[in-house]
Specification:
Layout lengths: L6 E2 L3 E2 L6 E2 L4 E2 L4 H13 L7 E4 L4 H6 L43 H17 L4 E5 L6 H5 L1 H9 L5 H17 L4 E5 L12 E3 L4 H9 L6
Parallel strand pairs: 5-6, 6-7, 7-8
Antiparallel strand pairs: 1-4, 2-3
Length: about 220
Amino acid sequence: MTSVGASRNGTIIGRHPGIGTDNEVYKGYYTQDEVKEVVAYAATKFINVVPEIEMPGHASAAIAAYPELSAFPDRDTFVDPKTPWSGSRKGKQVQQTWGVFDDVFVPTENTFKFLEGVLDEVVALFPSKYIHIGGDESPKEYWKESAFCQQFIKDNNLKDEHGLQSYFIQRIEKYLNGKGRSIIGWDEILEGGLAPNATVMSWRGEDGGIASAKQNHDAS
């Protein structure tokens, strides 16, 4: 994860889709000791650090490091031919621009095992009651195209791909609840059915917060 996912070959210049690329490699990550230092310092200022581990979308770095986390592990990361890009366009790549990307986590047992391992480390590093799991801007196109995902929807009596995202979030919530933690997610986690104990952060306006509150969930 740190050797592949923590490095990108360049960054676009200007606003998306960009007018060029700087062709500079950017790399780096926080070590566990550095995270502990940040959390400890924040505590002296009465600040509670809430980590966010995005899923099932916004996961390009993890998928680049572990292509098997994608519904289509052998498919190249899609890069618009008009998008400025540094280095290879073949295989799974860490994104070099901002945006929403179709390649999201596939809901296999392997994916959940991977995420549980990541969350185990996060829980050990952050004493926060809450773990933010994102849940926003997760396109459903790859899930619609994936024979595995379509069969998974049928086998689990889910309505559609939104129901699959709800299943995904609820499974992660159950795991974190078992660790004594609670999840926060962006308001997209309302789609397909809200996880039982989730707190909703409504970034797209008041409607998501209102809908969450009406279901007796905390919202912000």
